Amino acid sequence: MVVAYENIVRIVKGTILRTNYGTLGASTSTLIYDNGKNILVDVGHYGTRLRLEESLKNVGLSPSDIDYVILTHINWDHCANIDLFEKSEVFLHKRELENGNLFGKEDLATKVFKQSLLDKMKLNPIGTDMFKVTENVYTLNTFGHTIGHVSVLVKTEKGNVIVSGDAIPYYRTIKKGYPDIIFYDKEEAKKSVTKVKELKPAIIIPGHSPPFNENGYVEKDEIEIRLVGDDGEDLVFKLNRVGEGVATGPFG
Ligand SMILES: [Zn+2]
To answer: How many domains is the chain built from?
Structure first.
């Protein structure tokens, strides 16, 4: 039996948010239920830690109920909450484990992360393409954005669903042919986008935006931006995918 589409849940909704004060945003964390196993793809960064725990709770789970965690890659925004999942088996590509970096370049934080956090996990390094995690869930080598990036292929009643991480972080990558940000190799990144397209996915759940198919987004996420004001009143902006902006506030 393949996976029912409703058994794929975006536990944390990924965004990209760039401001003149710096870049905000979060990666998508996706829960997949297949044949009695709870699988979580990416775990996000500290800024989404409470959201992650709360959303898991909303579907009746705690981090200790997650059997398998798959890290698409170890850029900080996808992996920093890994310590919540000490009971889970953690899958990531061998190349990423050996040579991946938190910030896309060699740095002290990567060494500390690998030695103090990752090494304490039940690690299961992936060495092959189309590595079978459960009956209907496979990892797919999609190198390029980083040296050992993987996506996740889920066989569902709708067809192939790809959880693409930052190999395809949002819809425009499909049109452009490669992601805007590449830390490792542009040619590899292009091949990875083509590889995903050739699987004719019914839906792509990307690293930093709502799910889409070849015609565009199939879900809309409303993003709320809150500036803390005086007297308990905040200024709240609400934005959605199609670029409609609504300022609501000051707002108590
Ligand atoms: Zn990312």
So the answer is: 2
